[in-house]
Design goal:
four-stranded antiparallel β-sheet, three-stranded antiparallel β-sheet, 10 strands
C-alpha cells in the first residue's frame, strides 16, 4: 500500500481520525502490515503490542477456556475497533482474549504511546467510548444467549442469514457457540433428519430456512 494514500483510506474508514491527522499526522514509522488468514495477531495473557486499525479483512476475537474450548466474543472489520486491545491499553494489563485473522488482513498497529496521545483529542476519545458502549451491548446479548437460550436455538440462529450454503466446520460452529464439537455434530444431524439442512464435508446446505427460523425463535 502506498503510504501517501494511507491518510485518505484511514479517513474513509475512521472519520474520527480527522482531528488526529490535522494535529500532526501519523507517526513516521507507522505502516500497514498484511497477514494471511489464520494468523494469530494477539494472544491471551500477553502484553498488548498496540491498537489495531483494520484496513482490510477481519479479525476474530475470542476467549479460550482451561479445557481448550474457545468462545467468539466479536469480530473486527474495516472501520471497527477492538474492545479487548483498547481495554488492555487503558489499564496497562495483559490481554483478556486472542485475535486471529479470518481472511487475508491488512491493519495498522498503533503503539501504546500514540494511542494514548490520540485519546487526548475529543473526536477520537468519543469514538472509542462509543465503541465501548456498543461492544458492551453486544457482549451483554452474548451472555444472555448463553445463559438463557438453549443450544439448539442458538445453533439454528447461527446457520441463518449467511446464504443457502455455508462453508463452515462443526468445530468452527462449536467455537462460535462456546461448546464442544460433538454436541454441535449431534444437533446438526438432528436438523438433517428433520429435513432442515444437508450436511457435507465442511459445508452445510440450508434446505428449510423457515423451520430453522422457527427453531431459533423457540416456536
Amino acid at each position: 500500500m502506498d503510504r501517501r494514500a494511507l491518510p485518505d483510506q484511514l479517513l474513509a474508514l475512521y472519520p474520527a481520525l480527522a482531528e488526529v491527522l490535522a494535529a500532526g499526522g501519523l507517526p513516521p514509522g507507522l505502516a500497514p502490515t498484511s497477514v494471511p488468514a489464520g494468523t494469530t495477531l494477539f494472544t491471551e495473557h500477553e502484553p498488548c503490542k498496540g491498537f489495531p486499525l483494520v484496513l482490510e479483512g477481519e479479525v476474530r476475537v475470542a476467549r479460550r477456556s482451561g479445557d481448550g474450548r474457545s468462545m467468539e466474543l466479536y469480530r473486527v472489520g474495516p472501520g471497527e475497533l477492538c474492545l479487548v486491545s483498547s481495554a488492555c491499553l487503558f489499564r496497562s494489563q495483559p490481554l483478556a482474549a486472542h485475535g486471529v485473522a479470518t481472511r487475508p488482513t491488512t491493519l495498522l498497529l498503533v503503539d501504546a504511546g500514540t494511542f494514548r496521545r490520540w485519546l487526548d483529542l475529543p473526536a477520537f476519545r468519543d469514538h472509542v467510548m462509543a465503541l465501548f458502549a456498543q461492544r458492551m451491548a453486544d457482549l451483554g446479548a452474548l451472555v444472555d444467549a448463553i445463559a438463557f437460550h438453549k443450544l439448539d436455538r442458538r445453533l439454528a440462529a447461527a446457520l441463518l442469514g449467511q446464504g443457502q450454503e455455508l462453508a463452515v466446520t462443526h468445530q468452527e460452529l462449536a467455537d462460535r457457540l462456546g461448546t464442544v464439537r460433538e454436541i454441535v455434530t449431534r444437533l446438526l444431524r438432528r436438523f438433517e433428519r428433520e429435513g432442515w439442512i444437508e450436511l457435507a464435508r465442511e459445508r452445510i446446505r440450508i434446505v428449510d430456512s423457515a423451520a430453522l427460523r422457527r427453531q431459533a425463535e423457540g416456536l
